[in-house]
Amino acid sequence: MEFPYALALLGAGALFMEILDATIVATALPAIAADLGARPLDAGIVVTAYLITLAVVIPLSGWVADRFGVRRVFLAAGAVFTIASAGCALAPDLSSLVAMRVLQAVGGAMMVPVGRLAVLRSVERAQLVRAIAYLTWPALIAPVVAPLIGGLIVMHADWRLIFAINIPIGAAGLVAAAVWCRPTETDVGRRPLDLLGVASTTLAVGAAMVAAHEVSSDSPRWTVVSAGVGGAAILGTAAVRRMRTSPHPLLDLRVLHVSSFAFVVGFGTVYRMAISAVPFLLPLMFQLQFGWTPVAAGAMVTALFAGNVVVKPLTTPIMRRWGIRRVLLIDLLMSVVAFVGLAVLGEATSAVLIAAVLVISGALRSVGFSAYNTLAFADVDADELSDANAVHAAVQELGAAFGVALGAVAVSAFAVADGLPAGAYSAAFLLLAMVMVVCVLGVLRLPSGAGARAVGPR
Question: Is 222 exposed, middle or buried (0-12, 13-18, 19+ CB in 10 A)?
C-alpha cells in the first residue's frame, strides 16, 4: 500500500494549527488578564476551558466520522475552528473569550482526531511508526515558534492578533482538505449516539473543573469545592458504568482489553498531566516571578520545544534499539530529575543554564510522547482503531486540562512558599516531579517486549 503523504500532511497541518493556538495563548495570559480585568491564574480558564471541551467532544469524533464521513466532518470542523478564532479575536470580556474558546475547541475536537483517524485507516501496521512521525513532526514546530510569536505580538501589537492568526491558516487548510481528503462511505446504520453517556461525562468533567478552578481562587468556597468533587465522583462513576453496560456506549471501553492500550490510557494520562502543566507555568513564572518581558519569556519557553525537535529524529531508532519499556523507564527517571531542575531555577539563575534545563526537559518530553503514542496503538486491531483513537484522544486532552488546573492550584496553594528559588512555582514543579514518580512506578509493570509489533525489529 502506498503511503498517503498528502493525507498525513493534512492531518499534521490540523494538529499544527491547534497546537499553535494552544501554545501561543500561554505566553499572552498575563496580557489577556490585564486587558480583561482578571488575575493571570483566573485567565488560565482560557486554556482549561479549551482542553475540557476537547476532552468532552472528542469521544464523539469516531461516531460522527462514521455517521457523516471523514471528509465532510473534517471540513465542517475546520470551518468552525476558524470562525471561532475570529470570535476570540473580537471578544470584549473574559466570559465571551471563554465562550468562543469552547466553540473553537468543538471544531478542534473533531478536526484533529478525525484527521488522525483518516491517516491511521490508510496505512498498514508496518507503516504505523512512519505515520505517527508525519503526524508529529510538523506539530513539533508549532510550539517552537509559538511562544516567541506570542511574546512579540503582546509587546508590539495586541493579544487579539494571536487568535486572528488562525484565520488564514484555517482557510488554507480548508482548501487543502477539499482537494486531498477523498469522500468516504458513511455508516448510517452504526450505533446510535449515547446521549446519556454524553450528559454524564460532560457533567462529571465540568464538576471536576469547577472544583479545581475554585481551589485556585484567592478565597476558595469549600462548599463549592466539596460539591464539585462529590458530583464529579458520582457522575464519573455513572459515566464509566454506562460505558461498560450500554450496548451503544459513547466510548467503547472494551478496547481496554488490549493491555498496552490500557497502560497508556492510565499512566500515559498521568504523564500528560505532568508535562502539560510546564508550558502553562513557565511563561507565568518568567513574567510574574522573574519580571521578564513577554518576548524574553516567550523566547525562553521556545527552548523547551526546541528540545522536542532536536531529539525527534532519534526517537524511533532509540525505541527500536532498546525497546519501549526500557526507553520509557530511563526517560521518566530523567524527567523526575528535570522537574527538580526546574524547581531550583530562580531569578538570579543564568539564562544559559535555564535554557539548558528547558532543552533537556523538552527532549525528554519528546521521547516520552513518542513512546506512549506508539505504544497506544501498537496492539490495537484495525476494527478497533476508531474507538481506541477516540478513547486515547479524550483521556489525553483530559489529562492536559487537569495538568494545567493542577499547576494553577499548586501555585495558589503554595503562594507563601518561602525559601524556594521561585516561590510557589518551585513548589509546583516539585509536586509535578512527584506525579512523574507515579509514571515510573507504572512502567515497572510493563512487559519488556511491549510495543515491539509497532517499532519493528532491531
Answer: exposed
Cell (9 digits) for 33: 488578564
> Distance between CA atoms of 71 and 78, rounded to whole angstroms?
11
**Is the distance from CB of 355 to CB of 300 less than 8 angstroms?**
yes
Cα–Cα nearest to 32, from 80, 86, 91: 91
Distance of CA 63 to the CA centre of its chain: 21
Q: pLDDT by residue (tens digit) across 314-330?
A: 888 888 888 888 999 99
| Exposure string for 235-269, b = 16+ CB within 10 A, e = fewer | bbebbbebbeeeeebbbbeebbebebbbbbbebbb
The length of the chain in residues reads 458
Q: How far apart are CA 336 and CA 58, in angstroms?
A: 30
Q: Grid coordinates representing 231?
A: 458530583
For residue 380, report the phi and psi dihedrals to the nearest 5 degrees: -85, 130
Query: pLDDT band for position 313 (50/70/90)?
Result: confident
Q: Which cell goes with 400? A: 492536559
Per-state percent for the chain, helix, strand, coil, to nearest 5: 80, 0, 20
Q: What pTM was computed for the model?
A: 0.83
